[in-house]
Amino acid sequence: MALDQYFRDNRDRHLAELTEWLSIPSVSSLSEHKQNTLKGGEWIAENLRKIGMENVQIIQTPGHPVVYGDWLHAEDAPTVLVYGHYDVQPVDPLHLWETEPFQPAIRDNKIYARGATDDKGQSFMHVKAAEALLKEHGKLPVNLKFLIEGEEEIGSVNLPKFVEENQDLLASDVIVISDTGMQEKGQPAICYGLRGLAGIQIDVKGAKGDLHSGLYGGAVQNALHALVSLLDSFRDENGVIQVDRFYDKVEPLTDEEKAAYEALNFSDEALKKELEVEELFGEKGYTSLERMWTRPTLEINGMWGGFEGEGIKTVLPNEAHAKITCRLVPHQDPDEIVELLTKHVEAHTPAGVTVEVTPFDKGAPYVTPYDHPAIQAAGASYEKVYGVPTQFIRGGGSIPIVAAFDQILQKPIVLMGFGLPGENFHAPNEHFHLENFDQGLRVIADYYSTLPEVLKK
Fold first, then answer.
1. Tell me, what's the pLDDT at 457?
2. How many CB atoms lie within 10 A of CB 52?
3. What's the pLDDT at 250?
4. Cα angle 248, 251, 252; round to 5
5. Where, if anywhere, are coiled coils annotated (predicted)?
6. Are 281 and 287 in contact, with CB atoms under 8 Å apart?
């Protein structure tokens, strides 16, 4: 590729810059990191200015701000809107990190840090690809707009309204997002569907305070026991969700999709080895890929209550709490699912306690036909760089804003991911394979370069 030498010559600088950005603890969910999250946005705004982006702004929202910048001088060329996020997940449990999460470390050609692959590393590649094209050619082959937000990890709560109110600012011909993954090492993949998200917190309240288990045990409901009973009612022993009407709008896979997934030769044995488990578990009657990509889920993400210190404290806890999230598939509505979950909780609340349900994190599912020229062109750029055909897959995760982009801007969305399944995003020791950083820069630059001709056809 024409830009190979530029990327080689500037690799150390690019990684030093990425290290600097990754060092900022922009954890959007924790109020203690509010200023750090803002700093993360300010850092990428300044980097956009340095590479030659214009109209760079840090735009306030009711929460964390969005960063915008553009370069709009490519006459008769399409406009690409690049979306990413500068916020990251919390780092707990900290003791499981081999190196400090905000002190990036490179080992075995991987960069370890919170946000390395989700999503600073992947967003950063688009900035550096644009830099290379501007430095080497003095211009871009496409008009380019960047929209980098600070609330993706908390559900992009303020971004849909921002998009709705700024449709002219964000007008484009195609939307490109690098916040997904490849199928496996050396095997590029474009994701054409994502599951949605609906979450609730369950708060159980019993007696007026913690009680002595000897004085009151056997006569008063234990809030933790009540919570366990309630949580156990959500799924049966085969992983089938027991919430009334939960599956009403779930459509079966087409024969074409089933055949495409079988052709991927996905290995359950390899997955067990990767995860270090003896057995897999999921909804009976479906393959692992179908469970992870195309079936809805209900998972307990955390639960707490009672005494957790060293030793024992013989109390009946008066409070217990849990967080639950559901991954949703096309046609399932997050608001409706929250309503169904709430009704289930009300119907299964044990005697002797009161329960409050609080919604959080919502995002609609997304799926699109993958034969659009903009998506096929991305596949061709992958194949040119990686030397193997691109696979078209669904993703089990959620990017809340994708469905909003689809509904509001109504433009094709290209999910060009460069992460790998084992890179521990949302977990300790998150990392990004630098071979995909290097290859990804070339894929993105090639895609920008070929897109004008493709969209003319």
1. 54
2. 16
3. 96
4. 125
5. none
6. no
Name the residue among 27, 52, 53, 50 with its Cα closest to residue 38: 27
Q: State the residue for tokens 């979950």.
A: 341
User: Token pair of 454, please?
Assistant: 């493709």
Q: Tell me the C-alpha distance between 107 and 146, whole Å.
A: 31
pLDDT of residue 362: 85
Q: What is the pTM of this model?
A: 0.82
pLDDT at residue number 259: 87
3-state secondary structure the chain: CCCHHHHHHCHHHHHHHHHHHHCCCCECCCHHHHHHHHHHHHHHHHHHHHHCCEEEEEECCCCCCEEEEEECCCCCCCEEEEEEECCECCCCCHHHCCCCCCCCEEECCEEECCCCCCCHHHHHHHHHHHHHHHHHHCCCCCEEEEEEECCHHHCCCCHHHHHHHCCCCCCCCEEEECCCECCECCECEEEEEECEEEEEEEEEECCCCCEEHHHHCCCCCCHHHHHHHHHHCCECCCCCECCCCCCCCCCCCCHHHHHHHHHCCCCHHHHHHHHCCCCCCCCCCCCHHHHHHCCCCCEEEEEEECCCCCCCCCEECCEEEEEEEEEECCCCCHHHHHHHHHHHHHHCCCCCCEEEEEEEEEECCEECCCCCHHHHHHHHHHHHHHCCCCEEEEECCCCHHHHHHHHHCCCCEEEECCECCCCCCCCCCCEEEHHHHHHHHHHHHHHHHHHHHHHHC
For helices 434-456 and 11-22, angle between their N-to-C axes, nearest 10 degrees = 100
**CA–CA dist 455, 12 (Å, integer):** 35
Give the pLDDT of residue 456. 81
HSE, side-chain direction, 13 A CA sphere, residue 24: 22
pLDDT under 70 in the chain at which residues?
1, 457
**pLDDT at residue number 44:** 98
**pLDDT tens across 22-38, in order?**
999 999 999 999 999 99
Residue 213: predicted pLDDT: 94
